[in-house]
Every structure is written in structure tokens, then in C-alpha cells.
């Protein structure tokens, strides 16, 4: 049985976006919105609300995993923006 972690779900979404994103600002905005939506879903699945955690030493590991996935997904959007058609 394949188990998907919140981070792997966000990474898969990011890779899917990279495959289909046109390199323009509208697509970049859609890509970032998708990343943030996935991060919000990741937080919700972990029992937290996206945007309410601050960077302190006692942040749960699952929230850090969601943040890592968001960062990777957002970086994918930048690559898509800078890649010529």
C-alpha cells in the first residue's frame, strides 16, 4: 500500500503544475494559488489552520512538512515562470 505524506502530495501537485504551466504571470499566479491551497489542505489534514502558525521552536513536525512542501511547490512555480515556452 502506498502511503502519501502531506509533503509528497504537495510535491506531486507541484510537479503536475510544472508539466502544464505556461511561462507567464497569470499561470504563475495560478500555480502559487494551487500551492497555497495544497498547503492549506495539508494543514487541515494535520488539524491546524494555514496562516496561523508562527516560526517558533515547538512547531509540530507535520506543519514543518507542510511548509517544506509549500516551499518546494512555490520554487517549482518560479522555474515554470522563468522557463521559456
Kindly report how far apart the N and C termini lie: 38 Å
Q: What is the number of helical segments per DSSP (H or I, 4+ residues)?
A: 3
Largest sheet: none
Mean pLDDT: 80
> Would you count the extended β strands for me?
0
Task: Tell me the number of structural domains.
Answer: 1
Name the beta content range: under 5%
> Structural class from helices and strands?
mainly alpha
Order of helices and strands: HHH
Helix content: 55-70%
Global geometry: elongated
Poorly predicted runs of 5 or more residues: none
Q: What's the Cα radius of gyration? A: 13 Å
Salient structural properties:
3 helices; mainly alpha; Cysteine-rich protein; 85 residues; signal; single chain
How would you sum up this structure, described in words?
The protein has helices at 6-20, 25-46, 61-82. With 85 residues, it is mainly α. The longest helix has 22 residues, at 25-46. The radius of gyration is 13 Å and the shape is elongated. Residues 1-23 form the signal peptide.
Amino acid at each position: 500500500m502506498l502511503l502519501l505524506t502531506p509533503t509528497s502530495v504537495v510535491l506531486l501537485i507541484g510537479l503536475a503544475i510544472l508539466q502544464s504551466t505556461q511561462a507567464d504571470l497569470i499561470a504563475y499566479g495560478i500555480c502559487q494559488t494551487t500551492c497555497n491551497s495544497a498547503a492549506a489542505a495539508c494543514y487541515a489534514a494535520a488539524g491546524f489552520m494555514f496562516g496561523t502558525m508562527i516560526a517558533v521552536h515547538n512547531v509540530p513536525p507535520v506543519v514543518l512538512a507542510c511548509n517544506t512542501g509549500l516551499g518546494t511547490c512555490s520554487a517549482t512555480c518560479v522555474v515554470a515562470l522563468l522557463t521559456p515556452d
